[in-house]
Amino acid sequence: MEANPEIEQLQTELNDLQKHGGSGRPASPTFRGLGVPLGSGAIESSIRRVINLRLKGTGIFWREANAQSMLQLRSLVISDRWDASMSEMRELRRTTHLSGWIWTFSPMNAKSEPELKSTQNTA
User: What crossing angle do the helices spanning 41-55 and 64-78 adopt, rounded to 10°?
Assistant: First the structure.
């Protein structure tokens, strides 16, 4: 008995729905009907504009580590989490008595450098 490609494709689709059905991903028709954008283009465009406007002005040069740090700080402000994050850092500093503490950024992507040569936050 030879395999039927249509049945195999249908089985693959059914398997995907069973596997990912609870995650909300198959709700695309619902979101499309509500007018919610489904693609990543708008997000990617916004990221490019924010980075270009904030970090790539005329005569502005950033080290990669400092640009990462600035983007993380900006994300705290935009997401209205600045005050909470500063309170958490003050409490951590108060309770652990860190002396000589220097904030270092956390990589925001999977392809970050394993070790940075400089952790100072100078632009």
Answer: 120
70 occurs within a structural domain? yes
Which amino acid does the sequence have at 6? E
In a domain, 54, yes or no: yes
DSSP 106: P
Would you place residue 116 in the very low, low, confident or very high pLDDT band (cuts 50, 70, 90)? very low
pTM of the model: 0.41
Any domain includes 17: no
Contact 54, 70 (CB under 8 A): yes
> What is the tally of structural domains in the chain?
1
Q: Is the dihedral of CA 107, 86, 75, 101 positive or negative?
A: negative
DSSP state of 34: T
Residues in the chain: 123
